[in-house]
Design goal:
The complex is a heterotrimer.
Chain A lengths: L1 E3 L2 E3 L5 H5 L7 H10 L13 H13 L3 H17 L3 H7 L14 H6 L6
Antiparallel strand pairs in A: 1-2
Helix pairs in contact in A: 4-5
Chain B lengths: L12 E2 L3 H14 L40 E2 L11 H16 L19 H8 L5 H15 L8 H10 L4 H4 L13 E7 L2 E9 L4 E3 L2 E2 H4 L3 H7 L1 H5 L6 E8 L3 H19 L4 H6 L30
Parallel strand pairs in B: 5-7
Antiparallel strand pairs in B: 1-2, 3-4, 4-7, 5-6
Chain C lengths: L6 H4 L27 H18 L10 H4 L15 H7 L15 E2 L14 E3 L2 H9 L16 E3 L2 H15 L5 E8 L5 H14 L3 E5 L13 E2 L13 E2 L1 H14 L1 H5 L20 H10 L1 H16 L9 E5 L8 E5 L5 E3 L4 H10 L13 E6 L9 H14 L20 H6 L7 E5 L4 H13 L9 H10 L5 H8 L5
Parallel strand pairs in C: 1-2, 4-11, 4-12, 5-8, 8-11
Antiparallel strand pairs in C: 2-3, 6-7, 9-10
Helix pairs in contact in C: 5-8, 6-7, 8-10, 8-11, 10-11, 15-17
The chains are: A mainly alpha, B alpha+beta, C alpha/beta.
GO cellular component, one term (chain A): small ribosomal subunit
Pfam families (chain A): Ribosomal_S13
GO molecular function, one term (chain A): structural constituent of ribosome
Chain lengths: 118, 311, 493
């Protein structure tokens, strides 16, 4: 087991897969992180040496991930509501924010565009 | 009663029933076997072009002669009451000829005289009846059968009948252009299959093959396609005698390969015309005229229908 | 007036001249209907009867639901192969087919008949010790049809003989002669086999052999890489990268294939202090072993080894053969990214740069190998990346082979307004000594020898005539080896 940013990963798992489990890291960010530390595509978590793990953890620490990121999104929406903008109102009403039609096909917007997310 | 005195078969009037009449005619025919060629009138109501068309009244009835009194009036042609009597007469005539001359020797396929028969529209306009294409194809079958009779023993009547069905001006059609070998020793053949067209330049050589300037392996990754492209050379065992340069366009892989087959066979025939029977047997000369059937509106494909639901 | 009956029919009493049989329709002959599957049908009926009897459920007094009695069908799933087995299967080299017939007249390929001209177009067998060495340096590939015949054997073609003669020339030359070859050709035209034959002949002559069986591994981002620390004077040039695990693999192959030879080689120069080796007693084998055992030592060990091989010293050095397959993957950008997410070019990897530098050495520079040798690089026909600059490079080599001067008007140049790969363009200055070997189809004699071997091994079960040989050659695009093999093993019904 390898401990990265408070999470334990089994050694046989690919690094790219482990990194993408964090909220806030998608394929593009992951590629940049891996290139930054010269990690190749088929590398597994168990292949990392101690310094690489420390570097990686330090780098992830400096990024806004997981709960920090969630809180920031929350705050952004809150700010929009407080200032009384149109976008803020749309968020409050669980409706599409960016000018889509609402006659049909807004299921996802209703589900996702909440003021109180997560 | 006196022995059967049917005076003449074509007479429109008779005392006897049909069965007896046929029997007696056969009897007569057998007795006077060589003398009579059954007159054409017996079978047909066709107006022969030579005879004047004159409408004549029926002969006056002689009531004193009991034999002359008709039981009922019978038309000259047995197919008088059918929808297309002229056509049916033709069919009967041809059938009788085929039956009559069935024992005559046939000419081998390459010595059969080429014949082009009347087109369906031409035939329709000559007899003035509406004939279905499928029916006319039966006539054509009979004509080709008669045409197969060896020209040396072919009877005159057969020849006359065949000439009547021959397409006017068909003598010019019979000659086809023969290809030539050009100054570089090339012969050119063109073949088509599906949507593909191939043009093949064939030179005497050592067996090199180029298709669109590329090796045949690159052009046709599947061995089967390569085989079918070179089939006409393979079947005649000429693979190491000629060099092939083919230009193909259109269609897919199979179509391109098989269009080369045809083009190659045609080009090979120019070099060696004696190979024609071998190539014919291998199916390399026959052009496959099938094409993709067009899609129709209201259908999913050419024939496929959308799923039918009652409600 | 008409009679309702026929007058003739009344007079039936007379002797009939025409018996009615003449009118009778010929009886339709009844063809006996044969049932083609009578046996199976009967058998089936029998089985049905039996099964009905056997499977009949015991009669019960009351009605019970049918489904309760029906057992769930247990599906027998085949056990999946153990982990790693599928990949091993894919990479497994099978050198023998026990179902094929043994060819009694098969001779072995040895140093004595290495360059015998009369062997052109014959199959020659490979024997034990040589096979182990070739296996250790990963010369065999799954695409080379080794699993068809009883014993591994290879076709000697004219290019092979030529290669052998050049190896002999290098052996006899006192100077530091290095032969450079770039092998190209269509798919399945025998490029990698020629590389294998080169390696075989090098082993016969006790050369040192380095083999890179798959150049793609260096660029497809599946192996570790690290930036090379640069000295101060190099700071302006571009960043280079080392690949420790690939270097380790290279050293492992070299170690196993050349172990006996490396044991005898002593150091000429001092090696870096941080390598855990005994100064004085250590041989080159220890050095290679060190690199092969630990990937952190792989790159310094390789550097030290290369210094020993390329710089002349007190002890003489063996001749060296370097074989690289599918080299065209090295002629463009790689899949790797640098720390600032820029694409790394293949030539930025140290090993790639070094090996390409050997082949495309600039005129006037010192010979790369201390005691001469051969460089045998081949392109790939099946997995070819689209690198137009490399295509231009090949065209230039073809033009040079035809005697076209680089300043002549017809000489191929990069298309105007195109963006040619500058790294590849740099190689063009070193084209002078590289010999382009273009593999085409086999000649008639060679393909005859090859197909005869199929006949004698029992794979091709019809006699080989001139006609059928011509057919094979035409279908194989003028005798391309791999295509001939496909035709030879094809089952014809």
């Amino acid at each position: 087991m390898v401990f990265i940013l408070g999470v334990n990963f089994p050694e046989h798992r690919f690094i790219w897969r482990s990194l993408e489990t964090f909220f806030g890291i998608g394929p593009s960010t992951r590629q940049r992180i891996m290139a930054r530390f010269h990690l190749h595509n088929t590398m597994k978590v168990g292949d990392l040496n101690q310094t690489q793990i420390l570097d990686l953890t330090a780098h992830l620490d400096s990024m806004k991930l997981e709960n920090h990121l969630r809180r920031q999104i929350q705050q952004d929406i809150q700010r929009l509501r407080d200032t009384g903008t149109y976008r803020g109102r749309r968020h409050a009403m669980n409706l599409p924010v960016r000018g889509q039609n609402t006659r049909s096909q807004i299921k996802n917007a209703r589900k996702l565009n909440r003021a109180e997310r997560f | 009663m006196s022995p059967p005195t049917v005076r003449a078969f074509p007479s429109a009037i008779s005392w006897t029933c049909r069965q007896c009449r046929i029997n007696s005619v056969q009897l007569q025919a057998r007795q006077t076997s060589l003398r009579t060629v059954v007159p054409r009138q017996n079978f047909s109501t066709t107006k022969s072009p030579q005879a004047d068309v004159q409408i004549r009244a029926a002969p006056e009835l002689d009531l004193k002669d009991p034999n002359a009194i008709p039981a009922r009036i019978i038309p000259a042609s047995p197919s008088y009451f059918t929808a297309s009597p002229v056509f049916n007469d033709h069919v009967l005539l041809l059938q009788s000829l085929v039956k009559k001359h069935a024992s005559l020797p046939l000419a081998p396929p390459n010595q059969t005289p080429r014949a082009v028969w009347l087109k369906l529209t031409q035939y329709r306009s000559t007899i003035g009846e509406k004939i279905a294409a499928s029916k006319y194809s039966k006539v054509l079958d009979l004509l080709t059968r008669l045409n197969k009779i060896h020209p040396r023993v072919r009877p005159r009547e057969v020849k006359q009948v065949l000439d009547r069905f021959r397409r006017p001006g068909s003598e010019e059609l019979q000659t086809s252009k023969t290809g030539k070998i050009d100054e570089y020793g090339r012969s050119i053949g063109v073949g088509r299959r599906k949507e593909a067209t191939a043009k093949v330049y064939l030179v005497e050589g050592t067996g090199e093959v180029l298709v669109n300037g590329r090796s045949i392996v690159q052009m046709f990754p599947r061995i089967h396609d390569r085989e079918s492209a070179l089939w006409s050379l393979k079947i005649t065992e000429r693979l190491n005698k000629y060099n092939v340069f083919a230009l193909v366009s259109g269609g897919g892989v199979t179509g391109q390969a098989e269009s080369i087959t045809l083009a190659l066979a045609k080009a090979l025939l120019i070099h060696e015309p004696a190979l024609k029977p071998a190539l014919r047997r291998a199916g390399c000369i026959t052009s496959d005229l099938r094409r993709v059937e067009r899609k129709k509106p209201g259908r999913l494909k050419a024939r496929k229908r959308p799923t039918w639901v009652k409600r | 007036m008409s009679l309702s009956i026929c007058a003739d029919c009344l007079s039936r009493l007379r002797i009939s001249h025409n018996p009615r049989s003449s009118l009778a329709i010929a009886a339709v002959s009844l063809t006996p209907v044969s049932s083609f599957h009578s046996a199976s049908v009967m058998a089936k009926n029998n089985s049905l009867v039996k099964s009905k009897k056997g499977n009949r459920a015991p009669e019960s007094k009351y009605r019970s639901s049918q489904s309760a009695k029906m057992k769930k069908k247990t599906r027998d799933r085949p056990k999946p192969p153990p982990i790693g087995e599928r990949r091993a299967q894919r990479h497994r080299i099978v050198l023998s087919n026990t179902n094929a017939l043994e060819v009694p007249s098969l001779e072995n390929w040895s140093k004595e008949n290495m360059t015998a001209e009369e062997n052109t177009g014959r199959m020659l067998g490979l024997d034990g010790a040589l096979l182990d060495k070739l296996r250790d340096c990963k010369a065999f590939k799954t695409t080379q049809n080794w699993s068809l015949f009883r014993r591994p054997a290879t076709l000697i073609r004219s290019e092979t003989i030529q290669l052998g003669q050049e190896i002999e020339q290098v052996n006899h030359s006192q100077g530091k002669k290095t032969v450079r070859h770039l092998v190209t050709g269509d798919k399945a035209s025998g490029k990698s086999i020629l590389g294998l034959q080169g390696m075989t002949m090098a082993f016969m002559n006790d050369w040192l052999v380095f083999n890179i069986p798959e150049a793609q591994e260096f660029v497809n981002n599946t192996s570790s890489y690290a930036p090379l620390k640069q000295k101060d004077d190099q700071a302006q040039s571009e960043q280079l990268y080392i690949q420790p695990h690939l270097t380790q693999a290279l050293l492992t192959r070299a170690l196993h294939a050349n172990e006996s030879l490396l044991k005898t080689l002593k150091f000429n120069h001092e090696f870096p202090k941080h390598l855990p080796l005994k100064q004085g007693t250590a041989t080159l084998k220890d050095l290679v072993q060190l690199g092969a055992s630990d990937h952190t030592f792989a790159w310094p060990a390789w550097q030290a080894l290369w210094r020993e091989l390329s710089e002349p010293g007190a002890n003489s050095r063996p001749r060296v053969l370097i074989a690289v397959d599918s080299v065209d993957h090295w002629m463009g950008p790689s899949k790797y990214r640098s720390a600032d997410f820029k694409i790394i070019h293949a030539h930025q990897f140290t090993l790639v740069r070094q090996f390409l530098g050997l082949l495309f050495a600039k005129a006037g520079s010192s010979p790369p190998l201390a005691n001469g040798g051969m460089l045998l690089y081949s392109t790939t026909g099946s997995n070819t990346p689209a690198f137009p600059s490399f295509g231009l490079l090949l065209n230039q080599m073809r033009a040079r082979a035809q005697g076209l001067d680089p300043s002549a008007p017809g000489f191929p140049l990069p298309a105007p307004f195109s963006k040619p790969d500058t790294h590849v363009l740099e190689l063009m200055s070193g084209l002078g000594d590289v010999n382009l070997v273009e593999l085409k189809g086999l000649s008639v004699e060679e393909s005859k020898g090859y197909m005869e071997y199929f006949v004698r091994s029992g794979l091709l079960q019809r006699p080989l005539t001139e006609i059928s040989l011509a057919e094979f050659r035409a279908l194989a695009g003028g005798g391309v080896v791999g295509e001939l093999a496909k035709l030879g093993r094809r089952v014809t019904v």
